[in-house]
Amino acid sequence: MTQCFYVYLLASGPCGYLYVGVTSDIVRRVAEHKSGVIPGYTAERGIDQLAWYETHQYIDQAILREKRIKRWLREWKFALIEKDNPRWLDLYGEVRAKAEPGSATPTGLA
């Protein structure tokens, strides 16, 4: 199985607070945000809904994309989310359902 890296946007709700991150295990990472085990910006603001994500084969590509998105205007981030997720649904259930049994990594996303 090929390693996959994810760039993701979490939101507190539609057009609310946003957080951009990168991870190799999106199911585990979003679960950590949802449970609030990581103190800081996301926990303090209730940012725990997976609004958007994309996959990358290489970590350097994912980190570069994350850094670029972090510099974007909020409106551009909203447009990115709304292109694929116009109703701002929490995609965590979808990603979790695609995970292999016994693994937190989704299948078929690379």
What this model shows, in words?
It is a single chain. This protein is of the alpha+beta class and 110 residues long. Helix content is 40%, strand content 19%. It contains five helices and three strands; from the N terminus they run ββααβααα. The chain has a three-stranded antiparallel sheet, with helices on both faces. The protein is globular, with a radius of gyration of 13 Å. It starts with a strand and ends in a 13-residue tail after the last helix. The mean pLDDT is 91.
Give descriptors for this structure.
single chain, about 110 residues, alpha+beta, three-stranded antiparallel sheet, about 40% helix, globular
**Uncertain regions: pLDDT < 50 for 5+ in a row?**
none
| Gap between N and C termini | 10 Å
Main sheet, how many strands, which sense, barrel?
A: 3 strands, antiparallel
What is the overall pLDDT average? 91
- The number of distinct helices, counting runs of at least 4 residues, comes to 5
Q: What is the CA-atom radius of gyration, in angstroms? A: 13 Å
What's the number of extended β-strand segments? 3
Task: Give the fraction of residues assigned to helices.
Answer: 40-55%
Q: Strand order across the biggest sheet?
A: 2-1-3
Give the class from helix and strand content and strand pairing. alpha+beta
- Beta-strand content estimate: 15-25%
Global geometry: globular
Helix-strand string: EEHHEHHH
